[in-house]
Amino acid sequence: MTDKLVITPWEIKGSVMGVDYEKLMKEFGADALNEQVLARMRKHTGQLHVLLRRKFFVSHRDLNWILDEFEKGNKFYIYTGRGPSGPMHLGHLLPFMLCKWLQDRFGAEMWIQMSDDEKFLVKPDMKLEDAQKWTEDNVLDIIALGFDPKKTHIFVDTKNAKTMYPQAVRVAKHLNLSTAKSVFGFTGETNVGIAFYTAMQSVLAFLPSALSGKQIPCLVPLGLDQDPHFRVCRDIMPKLGYHKPAVLHAKFLSGLGEGGKMSASLPNSAIYLIDSEKVVADKIKRHAFSGGQKTAEEQRKLGANPEIDVSYQWLQAFFEDDDERIKKIHEEYKSGKMLTSELKQILIDKVNAFLKNHQAEREKAKEKVDKFWWKD
Ligand code: TYM
Q1: Is residue 22 scored above 90 in pLDDT?
Q2: Which residue has the CA at smallest separation from atom 7 of ligand 1?
Q3: Please, what is the Cα angle at 321 between 313 and 28, to 5 degrees?
Q4: Cα of 138 from ligand 1 centre, angstroms
Q5: To test the ligand 1 pocket, which listed residue (93, 204, 226) has its Cβ within 8 A of the most ligand atoms?
Q6: How many CB atoms within 10 Å of residue 2?
Q7: Is the pLDDT of residue 119 over 50?
């Protein structure tokens, strides 16, 4: 794929497979999640989460500082969020999965933002009431991951304004229009709500410090598209007397189509957390781009290219947790011993096993959800 990758929080254009993450990291001014920093984490966690071992989380800002503080006894909290504009797909869940693991391993508090205001402001056809409805739906997927209700707080921008707004205006006072324009590409047509929104997304990066009067380090796992908000936020935090939040960047889980983005606007490009077994099997069989050959015969002879094969990439990113097994799948698929249909079946079984458990936990989350909302 040759089209240029364009990344902002509201638009990912171009191929997300084969992205040169080294180059992107340099452009963003982030550091690679290298062996040195991973080894430091491992000292506290034991075996690393598959998303870290396979480098799906690819880069960071200030993770060493988070670990320095942790080692001095100053525990960090975790912050991430979701813009509720429809049902969640697998890509949306990945940062939350790492958060759940971090909460367990480091005993960390978890602060979650549901940015219903953002989705209302950004999407021309979105009603505020619908974004609020999706909030109620999406939190079930988040809670289903097993966050500790005693240590997890969910904020909704339009509902928790009493707590959030006074902090947001403190940020907004330092965020000028030229910065917002140059970071996000805003024009004269952009509504002023969107220009303000970065101030709202910054709030939970320092709210626990503001409320407690102590400097509590903040770690933000997110998809790379959200980094621009935190570049702005990190510049402003010292002006308010707070540390910059540390950030952990996930790569993009590719959509099912060739080189593609997983996008809500292309329903067959994504697997939703509420998809049935049959829908999952159907989407993968029919839409998962294959790096294999046209016929089984050719595949046996020439082998496949796992690097462009969506099913392999998904197994490698997350779904095949066993390091030996994924190596074997790579060898067999590449050499032609394994056919595309066999590889796809492995993925279908993994995704369906994951979703079966997830959907059961999602049902149970309905009973627990009240424990998670932030009360102003
Ligand atoms: P949203 O709802 O678009 O996405 C939620 C989270 O999922 C990540 N993400 C992906 N990660 C990997 N592969 C994909 N295909 C993929 N698609 C989405 C996003 O990067 C994001 O981390 N403005 C935010 C909500 C938000 C937030 C935050 C996110 C509020 N506060 C703090 C991160 C940190 C949004 O609309 O995300």
Answers
A1: no
A2: 92
A3: 55
A4: 12
A5: 226
A6: 7
A7: yes
pLDDT value of residue 18: 72
Does the structure show a pLDDT above 70 at 286? yes
pLDDT per residue over 238-272, tens digit each? 999 999 999 999 998 988 987 666 666 677 889 99
- The stretch 338-345 carries a mean pLDDT of 97
Is residue 182 classed exposed, middle or buried when 0-12, 13-18 and 19+ CB atoms within 10 A define those classes? exposed
C-alpha distances (whole Å) from 159 to each of 40, 127, 258, 315, 340 are: 39, 16, 40, 38, 48
pLDDT value of residue 16: 73
Q: Whose CA is nearest to atom 28 of ligand 1?
A: 81
Q: Which residue CA neighbors atom 9 of ligand 1 most closely?
A: 92
Q: Which atom of ligand 1 is nearest to the CA of 85?
A: 2
Same domain, 298 and 353: yes
The answer as to whether 150 is a domain residue is yes
Of all atoms in ligand 1, which is nearest to the CA of residue 88? 2
Considering the domain architecture, whether residues 227 and 290 belong to the same structural domain is answered as no
Compute the average pLDDT of residues 136-158: 98
User: Does the structure show a pLDDT above 70 at 2?
Assistant: no
Distance CA 266, CA 313 (A): 19
CB-side exposure of 226: number of CA atoms within 13 Å?
23
Residues 143 and 181 in one domain: yes
- The end-to-end CA distance of the chain, in Å, is 48
Identify the band that residue 20 occupies on the pLDDT scale cut at 50, 70 and 90: confident
Question: Residue 189 sits in which domain range?
Answer: 20-251
Binding site membership of 250 for ligand 1 (Cβ less than 6 Å) = yes
Rounded Cα–Cα distance for residues 11 and 9 (Å): 6
Q: Is residue 371 part of a domain?
A: no
Do residues 278 and 202 share a domain? Answer: no
